[in-house]
């Protein structure tokens, strides 16, 4: 049977304001209590653990005796670096406690798990190499051995880093620019795409390092040959992604601009290129990895100075600590390039930050 509604109940419901009957948004208190992201919080226990780990590491470096095979190595540089880092971490933690909403507090919250993991790793590394002698030379090196190798060879390492950076900048820039114009031409002109796209599909996937003998035969110097294969590594992904980005521009954008009187050059500069910019940056990221791989191959055969040349040279002498130092600098160099490219993307695509999860 249908439920009867009394006149009193009906009048009470009808007299209630409409705003009270609609679902209300959460209060400001509820909004403030909701988590804004998933970053780990820098609680007192976590930050205290970080300080404890690095203090333990400093004590291990200073107090424990060296293993028999490493008694001649001085631990002073390691102790100085560890002590400086511990003082910096203490000041960083105090700043975050005094000003919990400061940029220092947010950065500490973000990096604290990595600080803890790095402290634990250094403790294990120091104990197993220089203190207990579980991992013996020459294949395993203690931190003080790596520092001594760097201090003894830093001028040559700096020169090799500069040579690698210059060769990479020349090749990567030339390849990316050429890839941009190739992809733009294929994406904008159907006739050019008809002739160039099959060539891109045929030549582009060929590994850049395999073209080094041909480059050495055709180009006048070994340096230009090395720059060529570095540029080739960047050219293919840049051309492919630029073509895809230009061809995916919405047709109504172009029709609307033409209706307003835009010419071909305006359409390319102000419509096609900005619309294809996310794909072009993807091509730059992909080309970065292939160009770095080509750089390492080029330096082994085509030039007489560079980080890969240095690593291969000291490996031939079985000087593994210096080889590890070269690898560390190479990894730092590659990471720096990647971070710089991320910064460029964030600057050029600032309008995407609230629309696309990076």
Automatic annotation (TrEMBL):
<keyword id="KW-1003">Cell membrane</keyword>
<feature type="transmembrane region" description="Helical">
    <location>
        <begin position="45"/>
        <end position="64"/>
    </location>
</feature>
<keyword id="KW-0472">Membrane</keyword>
<feature type="transmembrane region" description="Helical">
    <location>
        <begin position="108"/>
        <end position="127"/>
    </location>
</feature>
<dbReference type="GO" id="GO:0055085">
    <property type="term" value="P:transmembrane transport"/>
</dbReference>
<feature type="transmembrane region" description="Helical">
    <location>
        <begin position="76"/>
        <end position="96"/>
    </location>
</feature>
<dbReference type="InterPro" id="IPR000515">
    <property type="entry name" value="MetI-like"/>
</dbReference>
<dbReference type="Pfam" id="PF00528">
    <property type="entry name" value="BPD_transp_1"/>
</dbReference>
<keyword id="KW-1133">Transmembrane helix</keyword>
<protein>
    <submittedName>
        <fullName>ABC transporter permease subunit</fullName>
    </submittedName>
</protein>
<feature type="transmembrane region" description="Helical">
    <location>
        <begin position="208"/>
        <end position="236"/>
    </location>
</feature>
<comment type="similarity">
    <text>Belongs to the binding-protein-dependent transport system permease family.</text>
</comment>
<feature type="domain" description="ABC transmembrane type-1">
    <location>
        <begin position="161"/>
        <end position="341"/>
    </location>
</feature>
<feature type="transmembrane region" description="Helical">
    <location>
        <begin position="165"/>
        <end position="188"/>
    </location>
</feature>
<feature type="transmembrane region" description="Helical">
    <location>
        <begin position="139"/>
        <end position="158"/>
    </location>
</feature>
<feature type="transmembrane region" description="Helical">
    <location>
        <begin position="323"/>
        <end position="342"/>
    </location>
</feature>
<dbReference type="InterPro" id="IPR035906">
    <property type="entry name" value="MetI-like_sf"/>
</dbReference>
<feature type="transmembrane region" description="Helical">
    <location>
        <begin position="280"/>
        <end position="303"/>
    </location>
</feature>
<feature type="region of interest" description="Disordered">
    <location>
        <begin position="1"/>
        <end position="41"/>
    </location>
</feature>
<keyword id="KW-0812">Transmembrane</keyword>
<dbReference type="GO" id="GO:0005886">
    <property type="term" value="C:plasma membrane"/>
</dbReference>
<keyword id="KW-0813">Transport</keyword>
């Amino acid at each position: 049977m249908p439920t009867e509604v009394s006149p009193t109940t009906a009048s009470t419901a009808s007299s209630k304001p409409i705003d009270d009957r609609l679902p209300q948004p959460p209060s400001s208190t509820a909004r403030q209590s909701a988590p804004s992201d998933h970053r780990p919080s820098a609680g007192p226990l976590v930050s205290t653990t970080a300080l404890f780990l690095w203090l333990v590491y400093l004590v291990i470096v200073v107090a424990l005796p060296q293993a028999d095979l490493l008694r001649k190595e001085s631990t002073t540089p390691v102790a100085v670096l560890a002590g400086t880092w511990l003082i910096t971490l203490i000041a960083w933690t105090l700043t975050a406690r005094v000003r919990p909403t400061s940029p220092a507090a947010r950065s500490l919250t973000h990096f604290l798990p990595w600080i803890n993991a790095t402290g634990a790793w250094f403790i294990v590394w120091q104990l197993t190499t220089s203190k207990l002698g579980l991992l013996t030379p020459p294949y395993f090196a203690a931190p003080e051995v790596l520092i001594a190798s760097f201090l003894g060879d830093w001028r040559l390492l700096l020169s090799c880093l500069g040579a690698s950076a210059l060769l990479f900048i020349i090749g990567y820039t030339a390849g990316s620019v050429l890839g941009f114009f190739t992809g733009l031409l294929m994406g904008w002109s159907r006739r050019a795409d008809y002739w160039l796209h099959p060539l891109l599909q045929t030549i582009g996937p060929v590994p850049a390092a395999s073209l080094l003998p041909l480059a050495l035969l055709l180009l006048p110097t070994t340096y230009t040959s090395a720059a060529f294969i570095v540029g080739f590594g960047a050219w293919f992904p840049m051309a492919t992604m630029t073509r895809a980005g230009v061809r995916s521009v919405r047709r109504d954008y172009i029709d609307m601009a033409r209706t307003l009187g835009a010419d071909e050059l305006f359409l390319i500069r102000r419509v096609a290129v900005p619309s294809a910019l996310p794909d072009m940056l993807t091509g730059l990221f992909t080309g970065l990895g292939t160009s770095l791989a080509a750089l390492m191959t080029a330096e082994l055969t085509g030039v007489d100075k560079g980080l890969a040349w240095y690593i291969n040279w000291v490996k031939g002498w079985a000087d593994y600590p210096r080889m590890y130092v070269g690898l560390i600098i190479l990894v730092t160099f590659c990471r720096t390039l990647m971070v710089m490219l991320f910064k460029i993307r964030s600057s050029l695509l600032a309008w995407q930050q609230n629309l696309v999860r990076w």
